[in-house]
Amino acid sequence: MLKLSRYVLHDIVRSKVILAYTLFLLTISVTLFQMEDNPSKALMSLLNIVLIVVPLVSMVFATIHYYNSYEFIELMLSQPVSRTRILMSEYLGTAASLSASFLVGVGVPVLLFNLDEVGLALITTGTALTFIFTSLAFYASVLARDKARGIGVALMLWFYFALIYDGLVLTILFAFSDYPLEQLTLALSSLNPVDLGRIFLMLKMDVSALMGYTGATYKDFFGSSFGALYSLGILLLWATIPLWLAVRSFNKKDL
Amino acid sequence: MKRLSCILLSLLCLQAHAHTLTVGKGQPFATIRNAIAAAKPGDTVLVKKGTYYVNNILVTKPITLLGENMPLLHGADKYEIFTVSGNRITIKGFQLTNSGYSAMNDYAAIKVVDATNVVIEGNKIYRAYFGIHMANASNCTIRNNYLFGLTKTEQTTGNGIHLWKCNNMLVEKNEVHAHRDGIYFEFVTHSLVRNNYSEGNIRYGLHFMFSNDDQYFGNTFINNGAGVAVMYSKKVMMHRNRFLNNWGPAAYGLLLKEISDSKIEGNRFYKNTVGIQMESTSRIAASNNRFEENGWAAKVAASSMDNSFTNNNFQGNTFDIGTNGSVVLNTFNNNYWDKYEGYDRNKDGRGDVPYHPVSMYSTIIESNPNTLMLLRSFMVALLDKAEKALPSLTPENLKDDQPLLKALKL
Questions:
Q1: Which of A166, A188, B36, B342 is found 20 to 30 A from B162 (Cα to Cα)?
Q2: What letters, b where the CB count within 10 A reaches 16 and e where it falls short, cover A209-238?
Q3: Model pTM?
Q4: How far is A60 from chain B, CA to nearest CA, in Å?
Q5: Can you tell me which residues the record assigns to a coiled coil (chain A) (predicted)?
């Protein structure tokens, strides 16, 4: 499996797209840190990039990569290697290369300019989001037969998590505004990895004071070590469940 | 001329009659209490350096109590240290510690009741329930004192400098830490609070209740539960104060509730959750203030009217103005807003299109606080942009018609 993953990784690195992505992240991070005299403010801006760009690139790149290596997958299938193994190697190769470029592009500048709890949380969240959205992309591509539809589904999913979901949350919060909603908002935030990552990070920053009463409920929850474990656990579930579904349907699929 | 020289002469006579009674080891008086008992009006009781265990020293004569090299008066956690009542009394240069705590009485290190022309100066007060407590006093001065409280809860800690039913008071250059309210005014009129420093108090740095015609300027309020609260008062002038780092879920820089006819000028609000919170206020003019990096620069409740914001700088605040209704009876003019995106074609330094300081999201939060879980999400940024282009939900009349393009030099 590792050998296969290494081939995948090699293939991806050669394609230069990943290099461009790394450079893009690196440029943005370094520029932000140099533009703002206060590193924690730069981190705030970086948070937005991480929450929007990382999922988008992970999804689109993973989908395109899956379809581009379709022939390679077919070739591998003719060898005595199990299907689970093939898909897992593809996944690990893609996710590893994407998170490597995230770690170089964002992780290194953060470590250099603002190494503290918030910085580390940002790196963790970004890496987790890379793994999560790669796994969602794999599930989408396994389900959709042709490339155009696959990319369409991936984009729709990104759109849903980045934007539509928050709109729905807003609607729900207004529709039930007469009820105590603190627990519900906690639950709602777990249903979207982007939101979960954002709240998890924001509670580590001092803007959390703006959140008033709601923020206090969050802080009690996410601030505790149980809360940190909980959010990491949920993020892990978000990465493993779509992947498991993808493997399951890949195994049954008539290729 | 004759009368003047007569007065001078009599003053000299008084001076000649004034004695100094020295207290300390190997001195004429062993205890402060004895010295005070022996003192005549106008005398000075000089206390030498040392530690004295004392309670309830009653001072009712017009005398001066002077500490040499900061003698330490220890209250053994019981009662008060000084209880002062009368006219022309000065207490200067002492260290006071461990006065008593009681849930029934407001024990203070120095308590002043029914007094005039009292001067409390240059003392250091530690671990006191109330630091300096004045009731029914006038023309008194509290200057250059340093107070550090008990750092307990709101109920078990008293106020640093507590003034009740006083007039013509001067509170200046004091430093208060870890009390409930740093400086507390209730029914205090025509008084002046200046150049004080109030840090890390549990509730407010400075608190006004029912206190009219007062001024405070040049004070610094850092990291208190809330910087300053002015409630149910009239004609309070607030100049050149600094409200810094009053940051927390329920913190304000300046909380105004039911106050009117006041001025807020030349202050700096930096890193407060809410710079100024206004509830049911009227006729307050805020000008030449700097609002920097606050959560909300100002929250103006719809119950406030005829307030004005002119010539202020708003920079780096998460939200500029918050409000809780669509009625706008306040004016915003000629301010500098760093979020302004308009243009200035005739180059007069003022933008040609009005600036709407209330963002869509801040309106949403006001009506439904739970939506704060969406703070800084992509969706909120889009909503704000859309609302900027076509205002529909935000109060349309809350706007600055002539926003400045360059920050004022304040």
A1: B36
A2: bbbbebbbbbbebbeeeebbebbeebbeeb
A3: 0.81
A4: 19
A5: none
